[in-house]
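Sequence in, structure out. First:
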Amino acid sequence: MKYLKMVLKTIFSGVIIGVIIGLYQRLAQILNNLSQNIYYNPSSLNYLFMVILAVILFIIANYISKKAFCVAGSGIPYVELTVEHKWNLKYYLALPAIFVNSLIAFFFGLSLGSEGPSATMGACLGLITNKIFKDDDTDTIKASMGAGFGCAFLAPLAGIVYTIENSYKKGLSVILIIKTIITVLSAIIITRLINNHKIIEIDIENGFLFQDYLIIIVISIMTLLISIIFIKGIISLKDFLDKYKTNNIVQNRLIFIFLIFIALGFLIPSQVGGGVNTINFLLNRNIFNISFSVLVFLLTLKLFLTIICANAKISGGLLIPTLAIGAITGALIYKLFMPFLSNDVLYLCILLSMLSLFAYTTKLPLTAICLAINFASYKIVLLPMVIIMIILSIFRYFVKTESIYEELKKRIRVAN
């Protein structure tokens, strides 16, 4: 009877996660398409419409952030602290707040992704499941978080490994693994019925030949450098804003960020949004027609915008922007070393750089490998990904960098 209840509970959790995250991802896709249509058709009426909407939605988003301040960012650090019994995540506030706030961010094209909110909302639905079944089970929260993450990418293996990798130092058990498998699979089955659309699709046909593997060292070094800049940038700006948090401009910075992104949207619509537009821009354009200086500009711009948006007092994840930053880095590396590569491996360089940056900034190498397998054939991506993960582990041993979420958790403890 005990195990039957466990199975029913995990299936229930998976089903409601599948429904909510499926609807959420579908709405995010619709709003992104809607704003892109507006940005690609500049007119005085569209300018005025977006500015008026920015003021209205700023008031709504600002009110939500004040009522549920834990919705700022992806919410993942708050979930991790809740699992560690160091924070009480008010799911009844966080769930609707993150749902609405992040969709507002996506509409204006902020450099934030839907994967972090999906994972956090999954955890909130796990807490709701505990409430319904009159239980206080952290395993349900962990499994539900992985289900939300997996639903965002329609990647069941990545969702399962995400939970396992996040839990191996915090109480990993066979029961947790079983719960995670059931929750993730049932969630993704439901999500596919509602929104069977992958956030990112990459068609990779060519793998590295033996002599091409030297490029992996370059990818690893660039990943380390970009990761340090990325994490230091977010944390330094956060510390600065916290220092001047009583300043009116700092308190109301979201409206200025909305207006900046409206201007950017009309000027360079392909470069606004979480990062999917940027990745598609690189994949769909002939790399020969994009100069090295343009790629450097795009990398600098994406880094700057993501650092700003990570401190924007609105919901949104950092994974998709991280992947976009990695994609531009991969395109730069390919452009630089193209004469020395034997195959057309642009897409592979982009994919490896994307997921290397994700792995290093989050300290989730196995999840990164699973995402790589989700995007392309394991015969092409598995060996280079494993080699890069080993090199990055060696780098981390000497550089001693923390993940972005660990850095953010430290500051939550100070604030709490």
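Second:
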Amino acid sequence: MSHVRTIFENMSWLLVSQIIASICGFIWTILIARYLGVSNYGIYGFAVSFTGILAIAVDLGISTHIVRHISTDYDSASKYLGNAMPLKCIFSVGTFILTLILLILMKSDEIVIAVTLLFTIEMIIKSYVSLFNGSFQAFEEGKYQGIGNTILNILLLVFILIAIYADLGLLGIAFSYILANFVALIYVYHVFNRRIAKPKFEFDVEFCKQITMFSIPFAVTGFLYMIYYSIDMVMLTNMVGNYATGIYNATYKLISVLTLFYTVYTAVIFPVMSKFYKNDESMLLISFEKSIKYLMLVIIPLAVATMFYSSDIIHLIYGHEYDAASSVLSILIWTVCLLFISGAANTLLNASHKEVTVTKIYAAAAVFNIALNLFMIPLLSYNGAAITTVLSDILIVIIQAFVIYRLGHRPNRKLYSDLIKIIIGSMILGIALILLNLNMWLAIPVGIIIYLAAIYLLRVFDGDDRYVINEILKRN
């Protein structure tokens, strides 16, 4: 089976599961936001963001290192997983204690401490689920990850509905996350043990030291990544209050839904690109170029349309209580475009064993982000945090482009031509939306037709793209 076909089959499983996850997530996002109200939703957002930043302490980049290693050496899976699981237990206990200490030092109130500690437990369980999902990716067995994700998200929606119906408050919502992830962990462990490989449980001290040292660059990058994307909500809570965090978090959750395709694509393409780096570096660059093109083809017009209808979207989803979030959505939507570009660049650099370089890039961006937020949040509150995120994303993309060029990975000029055509097609869409001034529901089908017509007339798809489509459809 060709790599194109393998990638598509894995993406199909993951895409279906992520569509289900997005639908479920969309529903529970609305339910939780409306049920909790802006201030309590701000506490919920703080807890998720704070534990997200500390999540790297549970994993220390081990999962990413394992994906890269066993994707080129399947026989090592049992030993790697057998040592990683007890090692993560030690990290988990330390992370829980660290979380409690930090919350006390921050003088958080009792409800914030209780909710955050519950989400810390959920984060620890989720870290083990991610370890096995990464291993499924390494074996290019995306269907098991897809099934596991589906089980997790459906159960989470059911548990959240029960918590809301029983009026269990913030604590009930947190327990819902814990229970759903625990069931998902049982599933992924059982399937991996029965269908892929049996972890050889042991605690080889020297081996654990070795994989930890190799994983640290991934850990630092992951930590900086989480600082970069989550510190704004922590800073908003401490500098402005729970209300501002609730407004910002409402938009952030919608942005997370829009990262659907990026999450699926990256999960599937990273192990394949690691193999290309080992066996065929020319294919590595082609994979990077096509990643950028296809991701931008989807997200840029979506960003344009979202910017025009941000008020309608916020009102439809959250109601009048969250009307202030529309301005945040109009700004943050552009981070999705930049995230897709930087994500593809990160995949290229990590697959090329340049994880230290990625770490340095995110270190610079994290410092820039925090420093600018110290100025922008007191000045513009949640809008200031949104502007800071966009500017930080632009900085990352600029640095990545410079690094990739210096490494000799110079994309074909046609990529730049295709990106210009995609931007022009999106501008045509935007102009049409302004002139027609349509209702949002009518604008969706009309906008799709206009954009597809523009892309066709601009001849964005070439022979290579048709080959990829033929491979997917089994016509070659």
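Remark: DSSP finds 17 helices and no strands in the chain.
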